[in-house]
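From the pipeline queue, job 12 of 40. The input is one protein chain; the requested action is below.

Action: predict structure.
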Amino acid sequence: MKKIVGFALLFLINLSVIAQVNIYVSPVGNNNDAGSKEQPVATIKRAQELVRELKAQDGLPDKGVRIMIEAGEYTLDESLVFTPEDNGEKDKPVIFQGAEPDGVFITAGLKITNWRKVKNNHWVASVPEVKSGDWYFRQLFAGEKRLTRARIPNTGFLKTKGPLSKYADIVGKYTWNQKMREEQPGQYWESRCGFQFNKGDIQQWENWDEAEILTYHSWESSWQTIREIDPVKQDVHFNSPCRYPIGTFGKEMRYRVENIPAAMDQPGEWYLDGKKGEVHYLTAEGEDPSTMEIYAPYLNEFMSFQGDSLKKVQYLSFKNISFKYARYNLGIYDMTPQWPQEIKKGLPQFPNHPRGGYTDAQAAPRSGQAVELVNAEHIQFENCRFNHVGAYAMRIGERCFNIKLQGCEMFDLGGGGLLLGRPDRNVVKDRIPFDLAPGYNIISNCYIHDGGKVHPAAVGLCVMQSHNNLIEHCEIGYTGNSGISNGWCWTDHVETYNFNNRFIGNYIHHTSQTMGDAAGYYNNGASRGTILQENFIDQIVKGPGVHGVVDGMGMDSHSRYIHFERNVIGKTSGKVTSFARQTGPWNFTWKDNNFNWDIERPVFAHSPELDHSEFTIVADFKLPSTFLDLSGWTEQQWVLSKNGKSDTDGYYGMLVEGGKAIAYLNVGGGKENNHQLVIENELQEDAQNRFAISYDGKIFRFYVNGAVVEKKIAKTRKPGNGKLVVAHLGANCLRYSVDQLLIFNEAIKDKKMGALTPESTNLTFQWEQPQLSGAKVDFEQIKKEAGIKAPYRTFLKVAIQ
């Protein structure tokens, strides 16, 4: 072997006198060869070793080293690890380059072979490494297709009945109270280890102890395995906790059961029998798994970059390489990493080594990653793909600077695409050194989509405790949680390392599909100097059964210090921008967006011209977002109201609720005298709408875009003396959409309400939306230019909007 290595070094040293050395890798190469074009090596790892040998012998050539990887598939038997020993230099980079785009595939999966037919379309393959306990997998792929692990139900979700029966009436006692964690650890944790199910939903199936249950809470999700089933009380007890007990956000939470034989009832489904070491697969008609190139992930990571605080990994580049098939782990508990020691303080009989689960905060930051960078700088990825992974595709972590991703695609993701930073909530209190915070990284023209396959709480692109980063012209879509999440602090007046980040020209769409408290762009905590400019956020629609708000942009607790300029919010089922407690639009600066937070919310003190015993009220507005076609959607988007609450004498109001237009009138005498009228299917999205109500002492009428409904009341109305509020703060998507409000001291009948103008007789009050002066902005052009630019658009195969 020494002779072979010596020959390779002699070859490389001779080449090092020229500007750049090329080392060649081929699927038909031989690791005993020199790495020349005529005699390529077979693996990336061997090419990495040759670079190290070259550096040790003669240093890097004047223009560095390029590892040319010929088209084909390269299966890793262990993750690639890059250390300072692999470093390039500023003008002498080390470049790993696929010979052609879409031709080089590095996989961390193993092919499943030796399939045998059991009966009909049911096939089985033995996997000895699973039976021995050396391997376990929860994902299976047929080429580029993610196969469905057998699940109940096949589509949609089951719903919990409520908390574990013993906690049904007191679960709130254990939700937020940290004192209970110390004084009653058994109850505190047990309340998180199960729920009550509806009859028949959970059974003592064959192999029920190998089942894994995914529960969707509000902003986070959990994986849990079954410890015990009580069919009488209809309680299922788990081996590990979730973050919040069932009942915190509601009794009926969504969940599904995976990996039991009884669930394998659809072609394309599979399950793994860990005890026997067998994978079962149900084929479609005519399929033969022996010819389908079926892979199971074997490694968690494709590669990692491991420098230290004194010497970083640097000046490495990767181009035209696809990475696929990566695993994920359970046994991760953010609240109690040493599980089950804490619950055993109160319940000593709890098992010592329970089967693993997963619980984490929103964004699933501890779920893992297929590529990890720590203590690295000047690392570049261009035209690379990362797909079919079990967690995040990549994490740019501690002390990482000047990392650049350009024209990369991350898709079919168990978690999210990119996590930039680390989940430190209070860097001051926890004494986190500032130099740990990554910064000055660039994510440009990247395409992140189809995430949350395993961890639905993960986000497309997450920036936490990281600064001076640029995220520009990316497209992010089809995620379970938010498209972009920025910040990681829920406390006021706390210094964070999240500042000076710029989000420019991104296209964010179809995100937040299964989780709540989510948005196209979501922010948490102070973020000084951060800019959002010319982003287009569209089609953000709340999914069925989701607990929590889903908005175009969400400013969560203590968010502030961000500048928003020339952004376009398109269609969203919730608010254009929502604000949690301890924040509001006054904590930000706004300029030339297609929504306007610089206009004061119209609130008018009572005066006689606002309230008459007989009256007509007209409101003209344009719906800037769509929530008309959402079955069962009930968030109320108020146009106006007066006199407080609906049970107040003289109350009146108009609102939009899903596809419904609703009007209220309280003629006086308590809540039993509050009347409601509803008109459906008349609202016009992205167009001008007219609402009007009138009352003549007998008939209450409601007009919507030409349609009229009425109700006979025949009672003298008692006017109120409360405030008139236009587009309530809680209904932001109509706040700047109400263009005109007219009030008349007579009741106009039927469709005549549609013809009323400020010049009509008996007008007592008129208000028009004020217009701010400023540059005229071409929002259609911003929408067109948002997202990926040429030439990366061609490589990433994305369509022009």
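Job complete. The first strand starts at residue 21 and ends at 25.
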